[in-house]
Each structure stands twice: as C-alpha cells, then as structure tokens.
Amino acid sequence: MTELQSFGLRLVDPHAGVASRRGGAGPSDHKAVTIDGHTIMVPVHTSSAWDSPFIADAPDATGHSALKRGAIPIARIEFPKQPRFYSMQTMDGVPYGHIATLHGADVLATTILQTCIRYESRRKACKFCAIGQSLAAGRTIAHKTPQQLAEVARMAVLLDGVKHMVMTTGTPPGDDRGAAVLAESAFAIKAAVNLPLQGQCEPPDDDRWFDRMKAAGIDTLGMHLEAVTQPVRERIMPGKATVTVERYLSAFEASVKVFGRGQVSTYILAGLGDTREDILSMCETLVALGVYPFVVPFVPISGTPLEDHPAPDAGWMKSILEPLGAMVSKGGIRAKDIKAGCGKCGACSSLSQYEN
Ligand code: SF4
Predict the structure, then answer these.
(1) Which of 33, 219, 299, 348 to mutate to test the pocket of ligand 1 (most atoms within 8 A of CB)?
(2) Residues contacting residue 175 through CB under 8 Å, at least 6 positions apart
(3) Could you report the per-residue pLDDT of 63-89, keeping only the tens digit for each?
(4) At what angle do helices 179-192 and 208-216 cross, to 10 degrees?
(5) Which pLDDT score is estimated for 62?
(6) 298 contacts 350 by C-beta, under 8 angstroms
(7) Residue 46 or 252, more confident
(8) What is the C-alpha separation between 265 and 293, in angstroms, rounded?
(9) How many whole angstroms from 346 Cα to the centroid of ligand 1?
(10) What angle do CA 220, 101, 26 make, to 5 degrees?
(11) Average of pLDDT values for 325-347?
C-alpha cells in the first residue's frame, strides 16, 4: 500500500468506481481503492501515476479488478461504488455532490468555504493546494450553508451508511480562522443526524474556540502543520507559515485538554523538504502532547505550482511510517481509537497499517 501510494496507479478503465476528485482543498487527484478490506486513496491523475508500474484492469461484473505490477497480478482490488446521495440535489437546486463528497469507503467530506485568504495571492498561497480549481470548474459552491450540510449529511447516512464526516475550510479573514463556520455547521449537522464530526482549521487566535467547537458538536479537531520546519513551511506555504510552529504547539496543548488525547490530529506532508529525522522528531513532540501525527506522502496535484514535484520514494516513506506506527501505538493514540476524521479514515496514508 505504501508503494502504491508513492507510485500511483494506471487504470485500464478510468471510469471504474467513484469519480476521482480533482482539485479542491487538501489531497486530490486520487481514486479510492479497496485492498484486503482497507480503502486507500491512490494517485491516478498525477504525472508520476502515468509512469507507475502498477496497473488496474477494468473491473469485472462483480466490481473486482486485478492489480498488476507490470504484467504480474499481485492482488484483487475493488473500487467503492458511486454513492447514492450523489444523484440528489437540494431544494435550491445544488447537486449534493457539490456540497460534500465521499472519501475513502465511508467518510463524508466537505470544504465549507471554498475560498481562502491564503489562496487569494500567488505570493501567499500554499503551493500544493488546489482549493480554487474545483470552484472555478463549477464542481462545488463557494460557501456551503449549515442547512445544506445538514441535509446532505443526513441523506449520506441514510442512503450510503457513511460513518463519520470531515469538515475542512479555506481560511476566512478574521481571528477565528474558520472555527466559527465549523461550529455553526456542526451544530446544524448534529441537529439533523448523529454523525461523528471532525473540524479542520488553522489554530484560532483565541483558545476558547476549542470549547465552542466541542460544544457545537465537533468530536475531533485537525490543525494541519503540513511541513514541520520553518524554512520548508515558508517556502511551500508562505501565508500559512506566518502562524508559527510554536503557536500550533500551544494550540495543540490547549485543544487536547478539550477534545482528549488522540482526538486532535495534524496532517504532515512528507516529501516537501523536511528530513525523515525532522518529521520523526516533531512526531515525538506531538505524540507526547496527545496529538495524532497523520503523516501522508505528498501527492503533486495537476495545476498547482508543485505539479512536477516528485512524490516521495516508497522506501523513504516506510522508513518514517514504520517507527511512527510503533510510536503512536506506544503513545496509546492509534487510528482505530479516533472518533472521526482523516486519522480514522486512514485512506491518504498507510500509517495505520504499521500500528500495533
Ligand atoms: S484521510 Fe482525510 S482527506 Fe484522505 S480520504 Fe480520508 S477523509 Fe479524505
């Protein structure tokens, strides 16, 4: 799985399974693939995927497909099917799939605000991010209202059995950095359906937002460092790097007191310049604080300034994920204990396969 995520996958039938996500916030240009009962996101639209040694045959009548390395079959895989809620639209005529999408096998994911103060300037934008692409292509809307999110969440649970939900957001102007819009959305969703929720935002300036988000119904919190050393952060994400690592650490400490050990997490994109030692040393600090470090191989997204940046080598990823799996297990904050969100889903990184 680690190799598949690093190399990507060539598809004989590009329409197999759920339509792959292109553009948008965070990881993209992937397709969900289920191997041995575990669903992972595998790059399919990136330039490295075109040269991948892994090829998936067109699925047969049962939806299964042969995964080959070169000409040699190595596994039977499955593509999660198009969810039923995708065929519906809101009373005001917005397709449900423009409000939230299926991630992995059973996760509903949305980007509440599809605009971001960081993305508005080329000088400040995170170089890996494509939050504006899906908006420009008309595949989503700029602001999902609490009512729209509640309606879609309820139907995704009823029709497709989604198990938890991830709400991320572009960073709006203001000191709350998106916490307010996450809280109002969570309140509406929880009033409509009992669905574990993860909120994801930058650290707000005032730690009292953590209590407010929890009280509104957010079960777990993601605040994403992306890169762990200041020079790499300033090079890759000049706007977001103005919120320092020190502020992230103090926000982690305060939020773990509210959400609990292992219920706060951070995304770390491996392969952008931080060394293995930098990443593992930051992870030690995070685990000691009770924060789950979700280390993910960087996937270059088409149309971003990093589209030609190579994905990290699978051997290098394994040299991080293996000790990290042992580290989080020892710290008692494994993926399976997380109530909602990316760490629980585990589709963008094979980290959970190294736990226990
Ligand atoms: S790990 Fe997070 S971003 Fe990746 S598929 Fe799962 S919910 Fe989506």
Answers:
(1) 348
(2) 204, 205, 206
(3) 899 999 998 999 999 988 889 999 999
(4) 20
(5) 82
(6) no
(7) 252
(8) 6
(9) 7
(10) 65
(11) 97
Q: Is the CB of 348 under 6 A from ligand 1?
A: yes
Distance CA 287, CA 45 (A): 33
Q: Which own/partner contact pairs does 240-245 have at CB distance under 8 Å and 24+ positions apart?
A: 240/118, 240/126, 240/171, 240/202, 243/177, 243/202, 243/203
Distance 288 CA to ligand 1 centre (A): 24
The greatest distance separating any two alpha carbons of the chain, rounded to the nearest whole angstrom, comes to 57
* Cβ contacts of 278 within 8 Å, gap of 6 or more: 228, 229
On the question of pLDDT at 47 being above 90, the answer is no
Task: Check pLDDT > 60 for residue 121.
Answer: yes
Do 51 and 43 contact (CB within 8 A), yes or no? no
Q: Whose CA is nearest to atom 8 of ligand 1?
A: 103
| Percent of the chain as helix, strand, coil, to the nearest 5 | 35, 20, 45
| Sequence-separated contacts (24+) of 229-232 with Cβ below 8 Å | 229/273, 229/274, 229/278, 231/273, 232/272, 232/273, 232/274
Q: What share of the chain has pLDDT > 70, as a percent?
A: 97
Asked if residue 167 has its Cβ within 6 Å of ligand 1, the reply is no
Structure pTM?
A: 0.93
Nearest Cα neighbor of 167 from 148, 158, 155 is 148
- Cα separation, 127 vs 137, in Å, equals 19
Neighbours of 194 (CB within 10 A): 9
Q: Please tell me if the CB atom of residue 27 comes closer than 6 angstroms to any atom of ligand 1.
A: yes
343 close to ligand 1 (CB < 6 Angstrom): no
Distance 336 CA to ligand 1 centre (A): 15
Q: What is the mean pLDDT of the chain?
A: 93
Cα torsion 123, 127, 131, 137: sign: positive
Give backbone dihedrals phi and psi of 40, rounded to 5 degrees, phi first.
-125, 155
Mean pLDDT of the region 178-186 = 98
What's the rounded Cα separation, in Å, for the pair 48 and 346?
22
pLDDT for the residue 17: 73
Q: Does residue 197's CB lie within 6 angstroms of at least one atom of ligand 1?
A: no
